[in-house]
Amino acid sequence: MYQHVKERDSFKPGQDVVINNGDGWKSAKILRPADTPRSYNVLNENGREVRRNSLHIRKSLNQYSPKPISNNCDFASAQNVDESGSVENAHENLSSLNDNLSVTNYTTRSGRTVKRSQKYNDFV
């Protein structure tokens, strides 16, 4: 098509690659070609399947190794679930949290008092 265009590499399923997520090149593995042209579904180092264009994929000599997932969170305390677990109690807890969030006016450095618009009262 164009005279000086370089053909992009094609990748095979199971091939070890690196992908650019904007914050550097990370290890990944090609799963399969995507439905869109020049795109591939890859398994990133966090174990998530993502779609990347071949522009953001490079061949790698290193083997793909997923990061180990640590479960340091206590699931019961993270959920903060009542013994009853009813929907009414959850709704009451949510409404009490909304009541605790007071909408206050604040003053900017220049001295202007900022008042929250009434149309935003339904939003937290």
List the helices and strands and how they pair.
Blueprint: E1 16-20, E2 25-33, E3 39-44, E4 49-53, E5 57-59, H1 75-79, H2 87-100, E6 106-107, E7 113-114
Antiparallel strand pairs: 1-2, 1-5, 2-3, 3-4, 6-7
Describe this structure in words.
The chain has 124 residues and is α+β, with helices and mostly antiparallel strands. The chain has a domain of 44 residues: SH3 type barrels, CATH 2.30.30. 15% of the residues lie in helices and 26% in strands. It starts with 15 loop residues before the first strand and ends in a 10-residue tail after the last strand. The mean pLDDT is 78.
| Uncertain ranges | none
Q: Please describe the biggest sheet, giving its number of strands, its sense, and whether it closes into a barrel.
A: 5 strands, antiparallel
CA distance, first residue to last residue:
54 Å
SS element count, helices: 2
| Overall average pLDDT | 78
Beta-strand residue fraction: 25-35%
